[in-house]
Design brief:
Rossmann fold; single chain; 8 strands
């Protein structure tokens, strides 16, 4: 299973999630997670535990806050993860967003509180398996400073592109490299 983990105020219906589903087909799963960090992580842990019980290989792709969650899961369950413009210190970057928020895809409103921000700290993990991480960064990320992830995830296989943005422009062209990183043998044609 390829589990795509979306970012803050996003959805399993976002552009990268759809691209992952189109490319990997039935192997891809991109749930819409709760905005509350503990609930989102509980959902993700349950998915990982179920995959382990069924002896189903599980690979992770996480974007932004989803990259932070993916790194935690990769360390806890010894999984491979692709981190796309990941947030490595979301308790710092998301502190400025407390108050009423809006989901980018369905317009649902939610309340992002200091308690939610603080709860993210408990999922901070020691980065110990660089061979299990593919880090994808674009220097033009207008939301997160790419140099922070580059510094904190030293040793990970890294794709660093000049320009781009937080959404990671041209993400789809990296899907064959992602499949190869996960050790996928079959070829996945990009469907349009």
């Amino acid at each position: 299973m390829i589990l795509y983990i979306h970012g803050f105020a996003s959805s399993g219906l976002g552009a990268k999630a759809e691209t992952v589903r189109e490319y990997f087909g039935e192997e891809a799963f991109a749930p819409s997670l709760p905005y509350v960090p503990d609930l989102a992580m509980d959902t993700l842990i349950q998915i990982a535990e179920q995959a382990a019980r069924c002896r189903e290989p599980l690979h992770l792709i996480g974007s932004s806050l989803g990259g932070f969650y993916a790194l935690y899961l990769a360390e806890r369950f010894d999984l491979k993860a692709v981190l796309v413009n990941p947030s490595t210190r979301p308790w710092e970057t998301l502190a400025a967003h407390t108050g009423e928020g809006t989901n980018y895809y369905d317009g649902a409103r939610f309340e992002w509180t200091p308690r939610h921000v603080e709860s993210l700290k408990k999922y901070r993990t020691r980065f110990s398996r660089p061979e299990k991480i593919l880090l994808m960064l674009q220097s033009g990320d207008e939301v997160l400073d790419y140099r922070v992830a580059l510094e904190e995830l030293q040793g990970a296989r890294t794709i660093l592109e000049e320009g781009g943005d937080h959404a990671f422009q041209g993400f789809e062209k990296h899907l064959p490299a992602i499949a190869e990183f996960f050790g996928q043998r079959q070829s996945y044609p990009l469907r349009h």
